[in-house]
What does this fold into?
Amino acid sequence: MPKNTSVAAHLRRLLDLLASGAPAEDFGTVATEARRGGVDGDDLAEIEQATQAALRVRGALRQHQRREAELTALFDTAGDLAALRDLDAVLRSIVRRARMLLGTDTAYLTLPDEEAGDTFMRVTDGSVSELFQNLRLQLGEGLGGLVAQTARPYATPDYRTDERFHHTHSIDAGVLDEGLVAILGVPLLLGSGSGGKVIGALFAADRTPRTFSPDEVALLCSLANHAAIAIDTAKAMTDARVALAELAEANAVIRERSAAMQRAEESHDRLSDLVLRGGDVADVAAAVADLLEGDVTVFDAGGWPLTPTAHGAGGAGTSGTDAPKGFVGTDGTGGTDDAAALVRAAEESRATAHAVVHDGRWVCAVLAGQEMLGSLVLSGRPDLDGPDRRLFERSSVVTSLLLLLRRSVAEAENRVRGDLITDLLTAPDRDPAGLVARGRNLGIDLNRPHLVLVASTDADMRDRLAGAAVQYLFGGDGVSAEHAGTVMLVPDSGATPGDAAGAAAEQLTHLVGAPVTVAGAGPAAGPRALADAHAEAARCLQALTVLGRRGAGGSAGELGFLGVLLGEDHDVEGFVRATLGPLLEYDDRRGTQLVRTLGAYFGCGGSLTRAKEELHVHINTVVQRLDRVQALLGPDWNSPENALELQLALRLRLLSRG
It folds into this structure.
């Protein structure tokens, strides 16, 4: 190969190294390889000169690349500041870029703590020492103290041997634990010239000796300026947010007081208008619920609801018959424990003369002098403030006035209605049309289906039972009257006789303070049918007493075969279906003979051997069928009481089929 061709190849090799950004030591190998290849004299000198030129070009390129990276970092930092959302995120980004651009082992930023009177590490990057990361510096100590005092950059190639600043044990221990040697620190300045204020310092540090160039110092100063701007901007934004929050709080207080005054005026007008227009207790509850934006229920003195729950704009928004959770509902659900809890809360309200909080709800006693007429319960407003609380308490006064008026009217009307009930029970056929007309005048449509309840209690408590019946029906269209040592009630309810009797027994027992037994019948329409329903309920009441179910409620339909005997219509088929229904359905569906097997079992006196002979099957078949009977009717199917009903139902079925 000609020599000039060999020289050209080595020169192309230098260009390739430049293009690939190869390290400086790779350039020196080109001249070595040329010398080994036999190149000498002027050609070798030319290759060596070209190598030096390539190294200079490489240095210039790297300087431009570095400058470009620095400018990019500064532009990115400026972009972070323009979209400043999180100060810590911006500061972390600045410290990370400082470490990357200067190529140091670590970088960190310190800020003064005005309350503690010292300086602390705000952000670190590349640090591995917990002691160093939690280092706190007193003002004027260490390299940072020198930077803060002079407001000028300061660099040391070896921190541990540099005596130009004040060393302390704590700072030296932290630096030693981190292993730092060379440190460059620049101030975070707000303002320029002599009026500038140092608000912190930005550092870059290596774990080996190093001399920082002027370009590196200038770069770190630029990043520090951005950090100072970020801190100042964040402080200004924080101050602005605090000021806005204070203004908003003051404005909210003004609006709240204005709204409270407006609500007080509005409530006074609305409640006064209710009284003047003859409004009812439910109307008061609805008005208070609307004004206080909660749920309001009026309860009687015994803790039972007098009105459906009225829902305000901020209330639970449940159905109109729901009472607050934890207290009984208007349909009679709940129990004496719930009612007793409400009574205790109302007593506490009476003792303190203010509304009280019970289980997250406000309770205010409704009083007439010292007599407890009932209570108001407000839910959905746990944060009831002063003006709204006073409104709630004032509404109890209006409620007490309406309850007193309503009770007086109810007592007078009940006496007249009681006369009607007495005539209805003693002579229903004497003047049916006249009874219906009298009832219509009193707001009772006797031609509409009604349930009939008959209640009794101990002889010495009968007077209290009559008053309790009035209180129980208070707020509805039902009537009550004493008759033959019992109390008849005609409630305005769509429940079944058994359910209505059970609910009435529970509440009347609570109101009387002694067991009250209640029997139900109906629904019935018309004077004669109502009188017959009363007779059926009276017979059922006697049966409940004989059966030892004192203080309970029930109807003829719930008494099994006794109900068939006591009921007016003697529903034999219904009794048979209710008693044997599961067995009949199983036989029809599977083609089995469970009913026939049960009849043979009872007919043979419970003897499995005789039953299998009568049925002409194996004794195991009888056992299997009786196991199926138990699975369908329950484990107590063969108890004396249930066995009696089953045998009676089997006999009635045979009679009805014969």
In short: DSSP finds 21 helices and 16 strands in the chain.
